[in-house]
Amino acid sequence: MNEFELLRNITIGQYLPTGSYLHRMDPRAKIVAMIFMVAAVSFAPTILGNACLLAACLLIVWLGRIPLGYAFRGLIPAIPVLALLALMQLLFLGRNYDPASPVVFRWGWIVVTAAVGRLVLVSAARFVELLIVTSVFTLTTRTTELTHGIESLLRPLRRLRVPGHELALVVTIAIRFVPTLALEAERLMKAQASRGGRFDGSRWRVVDRARRLLPIVVPLFTYALRRGEELIVAMEARAYTGGAGRTAYATLQGAPRDWLAPAAALAFCVGMLRAPFPF
Amino acid sequence: MRAPLIVCDRVEFSYAPRGPDGLVLRGVSLGVRPGEHVAIIGPNGSGKSTLARHLNALLRPSAGVVRVLGMDTRDPAHTRAIRQAVGMVFQHPESQMVATIVEEDVAFGPENLGVPHAELRRRVREALEIVGMWEDRDRPPHLLSAGQRQRVAIAGVLAMRPACIVLDEATSMLDPRGRDEVAGVVAEVRRRGTAVVTITHRMSEAAEADRVVVLSGGAVLIEGTPREVFARADALREVGLDLPAAAALASRIRSQAPDFPRDLLTADELVEAVAARVALAAVTSAPGRAAGPVPSTAGSPAVRSRRPEEAGGTRADPARAAGPAGDGPAIRVEDLWHTYMAGTPFEHTALRGVSLEVHPGEVVGIIGQTGSGKSTLIQYLNGLLRPARGRVRVFGHELGHPGADVRAVRRMVGVVFQDPEDQMFEPLVGDDVAYGPRQLGLPHEEVRARVRWAMEAVGLSFEGFKDRYTFTLSGGELRKAALAGVLALRPRVLVLDEPTSGLDPGSREDLRACIRALRARQGLTLVLVSHDMDEVARLCDRLYVLHDGAVIAAGPPRAVFGDGAYLAAVGLAPPEATRVCQRLRARGVPVPADALTVEEAGDAVAALLRGRP
Could you give the number of structural domains in chain A? Predict the structure, then answer.
């Protein structure tokens, strides 16, 4: 309907407050658990293993009391990519991937082996699993919890000169500026359209649309730099001199049972690595 | 007298390393005492903001000394203590928020000071309660209004327990309601004994201070109580400043009635002085005539629908009733509705059945509080939004029609948005003004001719400005360049959203003159959206008053502003001069209730005082 409001509804780290166990969990435990789950996904090349992972994902969605449809909504825009990936694999991998595998389908130059078939299923399943794990994480974690969690987890690395506080601050400010920049982009587009610039055109002519967005990128960049500079002065004015000597307003108080989740995730991850899945 | 909090002693400063020509501050001496309220005023480029940044060691003087609580700002060892003692609030509410939620942003300053956790919590709560934002503590800043964000910024400074707060044009991006919010907070802060330094373009804000410092060309021009400073009207006008409206009115009266008291500063004093003189005259000349409120005899009353809530339902169509008869309207809006994010929990109806007409050659004003639907409405006037419910017709183009030629409409109706920064796409002024004509695919010579014409029309010399970088322009020049960029399309209607907000009085008057000239010379039709009622009263032929998405009154400024009580009910107020007249009438002084300008009101009162016109 409206040619300009495409950016307004960006929600990074969309949060869905249902007050579940996952919502109340210490973000540090949640981050660690998520890392183990992602590792488990990466180490599971078998169909049976991925079936287990999908079941685990459903369990996580249930733990977070997230409506199933909502959890899968993020998948919809990914479907064309998934389909394209599968098609490419089916068409072009042929005998190059695991030549010993038996051929199950042959038509002209197109050859599909059992190994390729399995690969298609596994890569699609992995994609879905990753998406569910990460979206459940953002749906149950506020951005402030995320950044405090990162900061707190990186604190032991300070001796190695890993600037945990600065990294967390960078993430916070980046997230904080997303809606600001989205609104500014909308204003710029409207101002350009008012002076004869064009942003309309078919949704499907992707290249054309991208080219038309180009003229707003430079002014948007200038705007971001200017706001950034002002922010630096404002931060200095509030006595900011870096992480040293700062105290923290938000505190993370993890109950011991919060660490059950990463422990379970670790056990699951090791189990996935060790389990002798037949196929 | 207590020891001074801040002392500036012959401060000199230049941004370029040691260049005597580039001095922004030329020996400024200034003191701020504990609990004092100091206003710093001056035209654009007089060094106000540069001076402000010296007060908490964001900048350090090239020569001279700044001491805060005795600490020299040049010594880095004191920096943290100085920044704790003197907090700053900046102009742009957008770029001083660090965190993604309100309470963590307020905590940022004390966190930097290393305040222990329990104390931190207490301070954040206290600061948010002072500014009245505790309820909103876990909201993200981008969902707050600009006024609320400035209050949060003030809370962020208060949580550091400063001895002084510096507000650097903190209200210039705000609407009247936002300004009132911030003014309320500042009064509360002062009541608690914190010193306040206000840098402002609004003379009425400066009049509230204990002391006013006028900067010009990097040096202190005048310093004194508001009464002393604003008594020197000529000196102020010479550097592009002005008087608060009430003081200007008083000075106008005095120029014609020489025995009228001098040094009147506020509307209260002015009303008292006039009422006292009139009562005295009544006693001496016509004893026995009781003074009472003068019955309202304001000219033709504004056409209005009954009540804002009902306006959506009853189609009184104020547009047609108030519009002058003649040829067809350039723009006609009929029963327009607009809903943002329909079908989501964030659904919000911004327009509820708005109807209006703009006739060729007139100047139409649209006024209303923030959130009343003004900015949504103007986006319909050039087809940025297309009507889903209701009709918008622009020079015969039906915008609701899917096949309407929107590009043609945008050529005929030029919109100049509020923030000129959003409208400059090219680094050089000339290129930027040429953006529109180039989009039209005009030949090079024609583009050049149009750019020249548009720049000269707004008073920017083509040769002098075409190769200037846009970031080197002053606020007023930037507005003019943005205006020229739209004019280069040769529109027939010009829509101006807050054309003069944030400018100093001199550039404001300059830009208004430029708008008047455009109308007179080019025969442009104008739609003006503004919070500045004085501006609207001076420039517009007709007004529409929006409230909560509906037109609740329409008519000539005299009729709309004639009824102060009605406007107050929707959060608006007539121009200051009109308000003074209306208060005088309530006290029984027979002056017109619909005098719009300082000149008109001043002449009427003076005539009365001189004894019977």
Answer: 2
